[in-house]
Recover the amino acids of this structure.
């Protein structure tokens, strides 16, 4: 490409081609984008809606059952919910705008988001661990405080353990898939970043 | 320098936004398709990327104040999305041969290379450039002046000129290989 004419030819060839443009009409793209945008907003809304639902449910239980056990249970539920909402809110901070308007800054932002996903995984396990700890503490407490209520609780133990096993398995599966995806994405982004920085 | 960083903020509905977005799609759809084809050879990944880019443009549009040209705005978002999209591709990055994206699967790679049209050869060669050179060449081929390329990539014009100079030499060599 030793002449500008050659380069101009390439520009013409390039701009006349419609590489892989599937010809989707603008209206269809707009509809897809609007649908995806709605889904993202719904996901964000769902987090807070679940939090609000749990809070309302606990409030209703506390209003209809004034027992100490309900109070302890309700308090724990609210504490866990608050903790989860606080975490999701904190975890999003600084993940929207890159530090600078450069490609490397965008890559750093993408890497930061991967770190955020990693933190979410850790938090999910922490929350589950705290809930299990609460249950472990809760059983002896009920034994001493409400001996008459202990039997129904013990009868429910197999179901509770079954649910717990199910949750642990689901979380383990999710963790395995998410961790491998995060690792692959991180490797790719890190390689691209290194390539960009090396050529600066 | 224009801000395209607010790509994840929620769009605030206001009159004309939808119309403007439609106009952007009409105007830049071929460019975005070409850009996506440069970064992703796999069809599913390419469609994913195009969708991702338009979603990002839609979400950033309310924040666009006209500090730069509309073209710079769209290309900056598209470029940054394309770069960060690499990590989420469904298949591993194409090998050099796969990057040729041969149209006739029955033909051998060697035969197919000969069958490639001029534009396919150009696309294959652009894909084989290193990322730094590819982005500069791509934007130049799309008709952006160096000042605008510098804005899109967040680098200096001098840097653009240096990269373009080297990239042209490499592109020439690659195009020679594909003849």
């Amino acid at each position: 490409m030793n002449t500008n004419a050659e380069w101009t030819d390439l520009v013409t060839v390039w701009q006349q081609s419609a590489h892989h443009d599937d010809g989707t009409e603008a209206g269809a793209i707009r509809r897809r984008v609007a649908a995806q945008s709605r889904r993202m907003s719904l996901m964000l809304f769902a987090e807070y809606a679940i939090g609000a639902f749990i809070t309302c449910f606990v409030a209703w239980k506390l209003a209809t059952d004034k027992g100490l056990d309900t109070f302890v249970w309700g308090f724990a539920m609210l504490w866990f919910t608050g903790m989860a909402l606080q975490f999701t809110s904190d975890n999003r901070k600084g993940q929207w705008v890159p530090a600078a308007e450069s490609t490397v800054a965008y890559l750093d932002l993408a890497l930061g988001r991967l770190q955020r996903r990693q933190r979410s995984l850790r938090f999910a396990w922490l929350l589950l661990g705290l809930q299990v700890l609460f249950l472990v503490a809760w059983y002896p407490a009920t034994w001493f405080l409400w001996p008459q209520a202990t039997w129904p609780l013990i009868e429910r133990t197999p179901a509770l353990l079954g649910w717990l096993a199910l949750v642990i398995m689901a979380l383990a599966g999710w963790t395995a898939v998410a961790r491998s995806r995060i690792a692959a994405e991180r490797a790719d982004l890190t390689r691209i970043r290194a390539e960009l920085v090396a050529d600066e | 320098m224009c801000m395209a960083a607010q790509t994840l903020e929620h769009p605030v509905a206001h009159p004309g936004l939808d119309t403007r977005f439609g106009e952007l799609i009409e105007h830049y759809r071929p460019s975005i398709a070409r850009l996506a084809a440069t970064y992703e050879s796999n069809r599913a990944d390419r469609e994913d990327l195009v969708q991702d880019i338009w979603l990002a443009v839609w979400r950033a549009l309310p924040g666009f104040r006209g500090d730069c040209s509309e073209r710079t705005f769209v290309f900056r978002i598209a470029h940054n999305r394309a770069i960060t999209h690499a990590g989420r591709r469904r298949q591993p990055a194409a090998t050099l041969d796969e990057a040729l994206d041969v149209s006739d699967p029955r033909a051998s790679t060697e035969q197919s290379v000969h069958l490639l049209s001029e534009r396919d050869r150009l696309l294959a060669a652009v894909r084989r450039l290193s990322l730094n050179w590819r982005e500069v060449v791509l934007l130049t081929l799309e008709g952006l002046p160096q000042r605008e390329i510098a804005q899109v990539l967040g680098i200096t014009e001098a840097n653009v000129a240096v990269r373009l100079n080297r990239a042209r030499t490499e592109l020439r060599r690659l195009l020679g290989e594909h003849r």
About this structure: Helices of chain A lie at 4-16, 26-64, 68-92, 103-145, 147-155, 157-199. Chain A has one domain: 3-199.
